[in-house]
Amino acid sequence: MSKREIVIIPGDGIGPEITAAVIKVIEASGAEITWIEHVAGLAALEKGLDVLPDETLEAIKEHKVALKGPCTTPIGEGFTSVNVKLRKTLDLYAAVRPVRNLPGVITRFRNVDIVIIRENTEGLYSGVENIITPGVVMSMKVATEKACTRISHWAFEYARHRQRKKITVLHKANIMKLTDGLFIRKSKEASREYGDIQYEEMIIDAGCMKLVQDPALFDMLLLENLYGDLISDLCAGLVGGLGVVPGANIGDREAVFEAVHGSAPDIAGKGVANPLALLMSGVMMLNHLADTEGREDFRACAVRIKNAYDSALQEGDRTRDLGGKLGTMEFADALIRRI
Ligand code: NAI
Known about the structure:
Order of helices and strands: EHEHHEHEEEEHEHEHEHEEHHH
CATH architecture of the largest domain: 3-Layer(aba) Sandwich
Bound molecules: 1,4-dihydronicotinamide adenine dinucleotide
Number of strands: 12
CATH class of the largest domain: Alpha Beta
CATH topology of the largest domain: Isopropylmalate Dehydrogenase
Distance between the termini: 20 Å
Number of helices: 11
Strand order of the largest sheet: 2-1-3-12-11-4-5-10-8-9
Number of domains: 2
CATH superfamily of the largest domain: Isopropylmalate Dehydrogenase
Shape: globular
Structural class: alpha/beta
C-alpha cells in the first residue's frame, strides 16, 4: 500500500510529548504514513505566525485528515480558542467521543459504553460575547435549523452504522425554549426516520445525576456544543479520567482527530502525561481511513495498537493518572514491545 500523508499538529503543553509518543507507536504498528507537521496555538504564535496559520488550514484541506495535540486557550482574556476556530472554519460539525471502560482500569462502574455526539459549530460555545454597557455583558447562544438538523441525522446514521440501540438528547429546553427547543425539535423529527433506534429526551441536570448514578442507562448522547464539552469530561471521569477518552471532529470534507483533554499545563514538560487518549484518537483515525478510503492495512494497524494497549493496561503497564508508574515514552515503549 502507498504511504498516506497525514497532517500532525503537536499543539501546546503536553501536546508535543504525547504526539511524539503516539507517532512512535503508530509507526511501530506498520502504518504507512508520512506525517506532515504544522503548528497551531501558542506554538504558532512563538514562531511569529497567526494562532491558526493559513498553512495549517490549507494542509488539512489538502490531506483531509489531521491528528492534533491540544492547544492552550488563555482564560478570561487573549485570543479566541484555536480549537473552536478550527472546527468552525473547516465546518467539522460532529464531535464523536466514545467513552468506555478499559481492561484493568478499575473504576466505580464496570459497564460504561457511551458514544457522545456533540454539535461542534454553534450554541453558547461560540464565544460570541458583547459588552452592553459597562458592568453588563452578554453571551450569545446561537442555534440554526440547518446545524440542528444535520447533527441529528449524523448521530442517527452513526447509530445505525454502529448498531447502537438508543440516542438520548440532553437539553435545557424548559429554560432555553427557543435554542434548545429547536435542538430537540429537530432531533425528534430526525428520530422519526430511524424507527430502529430508540430516542429519548432528558433535561440535562437530571441527566447528569443519572449518568453518575448508573451510566449503563445510556448508549449514545446527542448534545449541543457547550453541553457536549462538559458532559465529555464528566463521562471521562466515569472510566478513568481524561487520559483515556479519544475524539474526532468530523465534517463533510475533513476530519481532525484529537483527545478530549486539554494541554494540561500542570504536568507539561514532565514526561508523565498519558498519551493513550491521543493514541486512541489515532486508532479512530486509522479506522476512519479504512472506512472512507478502503485502507484495510490501517484497520489491521488499529487492531494491533488496540490489542497492545488493552494488554498493557491489563498487565499493569500504565501511566500515573491510572495508578501506574510509567512516563509518557515508557508507556509508548511498553506498547511497542507488545506490537
Ligand atoms: P486539561 O484537560 O488540560 O487538564 C485537566 C486535568 O486533567 C489536569 O489535572 C491535567 O493534568 C489532567 N490531564 C489532562 N490530560 C491528561 C493526560 N493526557 N494525562 C494525564 N493527565 C491529564 O484541562 P484544563 O486544565 O481545563 O485546560 C488546559 C488548557 O487546555 C486550556 O488552555 C484549555 O483551553 C485547553 N484545552 C484544549 C483542548 C483542545 O485542544 N482540544 C480541550 C480542552 C482544553
